[in-house]
Design goal:
Chain lengths: 283, 255, 283, 255
């Protein structure tokens, strides 16, 4: 049953060194504030799962929190590379990261299978694709009716899933709306679920009956962090800070610039700075 | 009206989109081309982005695959597992519109690594949605600036299948979709030869020479028996594209 | 692309003798008016797929339209048996119907696989259940990662899916809300999709961004039939006519009473009677 | 306060529900018991109906599994595939609350046929959600009026697995959930013996004799070493139940 706690306490209590962690959000609602808290608490040896690693994983990897990253598209959308991910993988700074690489269809199906309590996902994929030759976690099964070969990947079952959502109600139910990505699946697939929200409201009486709601009893901890997904966005609250994404490229390109940025913007501050980051973006 | 190589590439790519197409749109050049089509000759086209936005009509080009604009202007927004399972794998998409880092004459796409997979010279972002877009959509349009670095004899890694290493792989794998059928560059238009499955040049942009095309291609370029000259971008196409780009830049600069 | 037509034309043009047909709706939004049109047009040899056959299939079976029924729960909810289904299966009146029987989990997964373009669905099911021994379409596969045996059933791919929905907009997009059942999956799994709606509105500008909407290009034909799901219900329009469900038991219990009811309420009338049926139920 | 056999059965069944349970609720008696629990000692219980309604709080008992009331009072309503995949198969349900047409001492449930499958004496509605409810929920509570016709030595058809034909089948099949743990009838409460996996009577309703129980059971009834007398329904339990039933009848009659 969801407990309302501080972000600091949520990460301290429910995320442990060595955990398999999914911080999801498909461009939208990426849990940046939670990622920064993980860096501040210097968590280690994490296996980071995420379809689109994005800046938050670039920052975690550059800060030395990650042992391995499981992903399907590791770039800065519309801008270029994730330079910290590449520096770690290609040059071993701050240490060499392991990678496990899939396609979006594979990871989306693997999250779905995780939520569905299945050991694996099947889909029509990887046909003629060479990832199947370099990733031993891509296998196949034969349809027992048509004999078609289908791709199979293991279900994703994180120790901890972290998401950012628009709202919780006082009961601890959580609403995600807009581009909902794989958040529901990632949450339901995990042993523990940490959610940061823009705000807590009295009830969801005015919410659509089929909206994406995670009931309180599927969630471990909720922390209120306004602006907590910046530079990603929260539909209805603030838009994506595209300029920040573009500017990140120069920061991440240089180890010293990156280290200085993390020090000033993560290590020496707390989650309360996120509210400030989105002030100028609000409509 | 004068135009840049990127402009004619975008305009010509947009012309490939039909009014009744359902397009799975990659970010960047494909997104520009598809939205230009929607704003000019194909107002009925359905644009789908892998973030889950179906039938979206953005006023500015998204920087990412999941900008808020895509959701706010969509007919509906579904979860990412649903997008890949019901909409892409379900066979509902007529055209997948992709770019590439490396491409070969069979339309095989590499967006994974330059060099060896385990010890790459350059680690690229990876496949994302493309491996299954390439095999699940009715056909694939590619749009990409021509260069020897990008247009190679043999891609370092087949991230997403075109027509395979010999042109026969799709059939051998039992794939029913057409695969890459059109490649639009800043110099010319190539189409897939129905027999060999290799790209052949069918149209050359005004002012471009065959030498230029070969100089920017890593394989030996072949030509259709009749090669036409690409029609120049119309005033309407250019003004709509420029307006779109200007709105986009202004918005992404945070103004 | 969705065409707006009369229900009569929709059924005449897009549903053919011998078709595999799914009329879905999980208690809610059951397409009764469309079922009556199929009876009026005396369609034959239909394979009727539906998780919960309900009264609409009882009526189709009793009227001799069906060759086979594929189902997972064939009763009158909260009341008892489907007496026409039983009379056909047990006594051959009007002719003997074939059955193929599954569990809900199997059929829900099979619709999901149909929508997903897969040849089969896998799930953890039928463990120790004897249906697996009498239905050859229940098979198994082995997970290539854990070696667990999972149940497999063929994907459902109807020739025609018929659903009732609250609204279409003028563009032909269709909104389903409330208990959405397997309608989206059944529609996306089918070759042709016929939808009856309570009303057509100008646009869906006020509809939630993640509501269950079927875009116009996934639909073949839309017919406006107010009250078209009676005695089932349409959330936001009229409630379930529970009294009718209770009364149906006596009508269906007797062949003559059934035949008379079909004559008076189906054969001699048109879909316009449905608006009248729900008048007294409206709030 | 006097009460009927059905009333004590419903009340005692409701007492089995705990405040932090997540219950997958079958229609009829299970639905009455679960809602009575919610309206008395277990206000925090989460009720889930297979129609997709999660955390529902109906004011009247639904006639069907998908009455509008269930959706209107739910925390959220999901699709039926999602319900069976993410919520049931996902292992999120602590208690499945079921009824049966035929039941044996191992808790195996038949809701398919009386007689032979292909030539049944009576064709019953079928399994619906029960085959997977029986194996996916943490444990199963059964509620059912006792009779020789319903409580049989051997069910004609195992629609939904209890503890199998010998009590060992769940383990043999690698099933991790507990299966039927409690059976509440109009005469008594039975619980599953941890060793034999057979039902044993642990509590007898006031005024009921062991003879009556045996006369209404098709197998040889066994008893726990200590058999208690069931506490009579309290005034509160009865009045809440009667109010609920009265509201329900009035509503379903269409008044």
């Amino acid at each position: 049953m969801a407990k309302f706690v501080s972000l600091k306490d949520a990460i301290a209590e429910y995320l442990h060194d060595g955990d398999v962690v999914a911080m999801e959000g498909f461009t939208h609602l990426i849990p940046h504030a939670a990622g920064h808290e993980v860096i501040r608490q210097q968590k280690k040896d994490l296996t980071l799962i995420r379809m689109t690693p994005d800046l938050v994983y670039d920052q975690l990897i550059g800060s030395g929190c990650a042992k391995k990253v499981v992903f399907s598209w590791g770039g800065n959308p519309g801008v270029g590379s994730l330079r910290r991910l590449r520096d770690s993988y290609e040059n071993g700074w701050p240490h060499k990261i392991e990678i496990e690489e899939h396609s979006h269809a594979a990871m989306a199906s693997a999250y779905e299978a995780g939520a569905a309590g299945l050991p694996c996902a099947i889909f029509r994929g990887y046909l003629g694709a060479e990832l199947a030759e370099v990733n031993p976690n891509i296998r196949s099964i034969k349809c027992p009716f048509t004999s078609e070969q289908l791709a199979a990947v293991p279900a994703i079952r994180p120790d901890v899933t972290i998401i950012h959502a628009q709202k919780a109600n006082k009961n601890g139910d959580v609403l995600v709306e807009g581009i909902i990505g794989v958040q529901k699946e990632a949450a339901l697939a995990a042993k523990r679920v940490i959610v940061t929200v823009e705000e807590v409201v009295d009830n969801f009486d005015d919410v659509h009956t089929n909206a994406c709601i995670l009931p309180a009893w599927t969630i471990t901890a909720i922390a209120t962090v306004p602006g907590g997904s910046h530079p990603s966005y929260a539909l209805g609250y603030y838009p994506r800070d595209n300029a920040f994404y573009k500017n990140w490229d120069a920061i991440a390109a240089d180890r010293d610039a990156f280290t200085a940025w993390i020090k000033a913007n993560v290590l020496e501050v707390g989650p309360e700075v996120f509210a400030q980051k989105v002030k100028w973006l609000e409509k | 009206m004068s135009y840049t190589p990127t402009e004619i590439m975008t305009v010509v790519a947009s012309r490939a989109v039909r009014n009744d197409d359902v397009c799975f749109v990659g970010i960047g050049m494909p997104s520009a081309a598809c939205n230009l089509a929607r704003l000019t000759h194909a107002p009925g086209v359905t644009l789908i982005y892998e973030s889950g936005t179906i039938g979206t009509k953005p006023d500015v080009l998204p920087l990412s695959i999941g900008d808020g604009e895509l959701c706010e202007t969509a007919v509906t927004t579904v979860s990412v597992p649903e997008m890949f399972r019901y909409w892409l794998q379900g066979g509902r998409i007529s055209v997948g519109f992709l770019g590439a880092a490396q491409l070969d004459k069979f339309g095989n796409i590499n967006t994974t690594v330059v060099g060896d997979y385990d010890n790459p010279k350059v680690r690229l972002p990876g496949g994302g949605g493309a491996p299954e877009i390439a095999t699940s959509c009715g056909e694939i349009f590619l749009v990409m600036k021509q260069s020897k670095r990008g247009f190679v004899e043999k891609v370092d890694f087949i991230t997403s299948l075109g027509h395979g290493k010999t042109g026969k792989e799709r059939e051998e794998l039992g794939i029913k979709t057409k695969g890459p059928s059109k490649l639009i560059t800043d110099l010319c238009v190539m189409e897939t030869d129905p027999d060999t499955k290799e790209f052949i040049v069918t149209s050359i942009h005004p002012g471009v020479t065959r030498e230029q095309i070969q100089d920017n291609t890593g394989w030996t370029v072949t030509y259709a028996s009749t090669v036409t000259q690409t029609s120049v971008p119309t005033e309407l196409e250019l003004s709509v594209l420029r307006d779109l780009n200007e709105r986009t830049e202004r918005t992404h600069a945070g103004e």
